[in-house]
Amino acid sequence: MIDAKALRSFCLDFNGATEEFPFPRHPEVSTFKVGGKIFALTTLDARPLTVSLKCDPELAERLRAAHPEVVPGYHLNKRHWNTVSLTGGLADRLVRDMIEDSYDLVVASLPRAQRLLLDWPGERR
Asked: Recorded GO terms, molecular function (predicted)?
């Protein structure tokens, strides 16, 4: 099971990833960003531990249908975001894949120059 420390570490392992706390009224909310855009949101000391992740709309629907731990994004665009419970029965590999997919979706939306600087595998020079 992925805990808060592992979640933070995995999110920060991506090229160009940063952790920020941009919500003054909710200073406990961690946002993980690349190129200034959020790819993951969480409250690392919350119980149960959850993370909200960007997702392709069709895949988001399939994940929600297949896994009760995956629900529409809390306080987010429910078409493009899922909130994932990390205390349930999801395999660590699936959670890591969802985080990586979220990062990739955000990086793909960045200008080409930024993608090149990140040495993103989806961008070849």
From this structure: DNA binding
pTM for the predicted model, two decimal places: 0.93
Sketch the domain layout of the chain as residue ranges. 4-117
Specify the fold of 4-117: Aspartate Aminotransferase, domain 1 (3.90.1150)
Full DSSP string of the chain: ---HHHHHHHHHTSTT-EEE---TT-TT-EEEEETTEEEEEE-TT-SS-EEEEE--HHHHHHHHHH-TTEEEPTTS-TTTEEEEESSSS--HHHHHHHHHHHHHHHHHTS-HHHHHHTT-TT---
Calculated CA dihedral for residues 96, 69, 58, 41, nearest 10 degrees: -60
pLDDT digits (tens, 9 = 90+) for 65-112: 999 999 999 889 899 999 999 987 899 999 999 999 999 999 999 999
Q: Which of 93, 86, 102 is nearest to 31 (CA)?
A: 102
Contact yes or no for 28/65 (Cβ under 8 A): no
